[in-house]
Give the backbone structure.
Amino acid sequence: MWFFARDPVRDFPFELSPDPPEGGPPGPWVLHRGRKKATGSPVSIFVYDVKPGADEQTQVAKAAFKRLKTLRHPNILAYIDGLETDRCLHVVTEAVTPLKMYLKERAEAGGLKELELSWGLHQIVKALSFLVNDCSLIHNNVCMAAVFVDRAGEWKLGGLDYMYSSQGNGGGPPRKGVPELEQYDPPELADGSGRAVREKWSADMWRLGCLIWEVFNGPLPRAAALRNPGKIPKSLVPHYCELVGANPKVRPNPARFLQNCRAPGGFMNNRFVETNLFLEEIQIKEPAEKQKFFQELSKSLDSFPEDFCRHKVLPQLLTAFEFGSAGAVILTPLFKVGKFLNAEEYQQKIIPVVVKMFSSTDRAMRIRLLQQMEQFIQYLDEPTVNTQIFPHVVHGFLDTNPAIREQTVKSMLLLAPKLNEANLNVELMKHFARLQAKDDQGPIRCNTTVCLGKIGSYLSASTRHRVLISAFSRATKDPFAPSRVAGVLGFAATHNLYSMNDCAHKILPVLCGLTVDPEKSVRDQAFKAIRSFLSKLESVSEDPTQLAEVEKDVHAASSPGMGGGAASWAGWAVTGVSSLTSKLIRAHPAAAPAETNVPQRPTAEGPPTPAPTPVPATPASPGHWETQEEGTDTAEDGGAADRWDDEDWGSLEQEAESVLAQQEDWSPGGQASRAGQTSNLAAKSPESDWSSWEAEGSWEQGWQEPSPPEPPLEGTRLASEYNWGGPEPGDKGDPFAALSARREAGAQLRPDSWGDDNWEGLETESRQGKAELARKKREERRREMEAKRAEKKAAKGPMKLGTRKLD
């Protein structure tokens, strides 16, 4: 039969680090770094090697092993595991660093603050109070070598080798035999006569005074140096002097020493100590106390040590969220502490909590998450954003609280780069369309336009072509002036995403209409944008070879690099309008429409023009940009108000033309053409939408020689004959009144007046032709309906009493 000897050290679940030992307290123990084999978590291992002929030291080491294993207190070194063999003793504790080494490292990094020192000394005194008052034990070894610091900066009392009972059980204090430790003994111990009357804590309190002196002044050279406080803070000096007094009878009990230092103005009466004491008792605090504590915690974290925030505050915050009812108040301190974590720790500790918070229905938590999203968005990966966060965030677009809607819109600036194709180009655009068209808060509509201008570069090419011009054009018609400014700046910020054809045919007409806006800020931005687009068109006109370079981003795939234009306009984003909604909510709690105090855009004086009928745009694909409202009568004017593709240019053109008509008629055929447009607005068909702009030809065709225009009326002067710059004499009437009358009479035009060409060009002719065709179809339909009614009336005979008249 075989017997195999097992090595207990090899089977021990902890292993020593190959790094050299860190040293330890003077005596038999040597401190090593180590780790747990199963998890790799760091630990500290105190090792004692049994030597022959050192039985007294071996007994001291075994007694310390036993004491540390049985004593449990937050301020005493925490025992984890141990190993006792004939050759060695291994004591495994939490990962700690000797205080002497810790102070040296922190001194090289700038030194410890008094706040940290006050809390560290508070912990050591509290541990002594526990030993003396609760356990009737005398530590007998209080010095810097017996104090250790964990990763959170908490001070732990160790060095239990020479501990003995104050009640006389087990004999007197053991002999140390180490000169480095004996220098901390009080002077009464050197008096062999035993005449000194002392309390059981007197010796330990003297040693505590020595520890305080060394913490502030460095290693103690001799006992006489204790008379000079040195760098000890003034608020602590009176209490320190009590500790190192020659009379052991007047040395205070550890509990009374804490009470004296915690008095108003005392060394340990500060916010840091109060925070730590509250965290130690947080499990038994009332919910109202916890709420108040977390609300005030964020203000103090900036002055707290980083290690303390990471390893003590953060676990308590996570526990309060997971098992308590702290709610949204923990978000601010949580994200503030998160700044101290690296990317891996943030993913493990903060992100799971954030994802869970987004599913909460608590409005306060939702709005705080949105407000502080920039602090954690960089740690979120795309799958998490699209599957776990965005589906919850979009509910904010439909919230009845304007503040939540506004913050939801702003958060899209951060979420857009991480959204997939469906969420960004379909789902998000639907919500933006509804907000811009139907939200009753002007600042929210404005911020929607602002946000769209900043995320335009992330949209796909087809979505950009379908959405941007329509959205910014709608914004220019908003009754809220900042929304109109945002629409103009949106065009400018995304100028590189439009073709030259779109710039000339779709964008410039919109911007020109804003040059007569009642708000000067809108007019100023409109003129700037017009000059920018005109210079771009002019540069391509001078050198057509630049066309490919200018339009390189038009059909390019979505890319953050194309946002250079938006980046240069960053100042207009959320800065100018960000606080409007919050101010509005404070001023009008009932969430009244933002336009109530905003002056409406005045219509030009003169004959009223009929309101144009909105024209629904033909969708490029099912379920994209436009959003239909169920249950809305298609005959109502607002039937398509929530679709951004509804290019209702009628109202804008009519308004601009009415203003121009008051001053002077810029086109010889302008009045007749506008009269035709006004009379045929009701006959406008879907074909007269933006497809009519594209039907005019490509960008290159726009620069070809135009077809010969119709000849002007007889007697019409050339453009150079009019006084365009100076004022007309007061007694002279409108020089174009007779011209308009003669044109309506059907006079023939001269074929050689290119300079008097109509400013509306091919667009007006195409629109008039289509309108005429629609008018004829409508007349035919009307005659058919009348014929059918006549037939029905003749077939039924005379009307009976009570029947309804058909027509």
About this structure: The domain at 14-97 is CATH 3.30.200.20 (Phosphorylase Kinase; domain 1). Residues 563-766 have pLDDT under 50 and may be disordered. The CA atoms of residues 165 and 785 lie 115 Å apart. Residues 761-796 form the longest helix (36 residues).
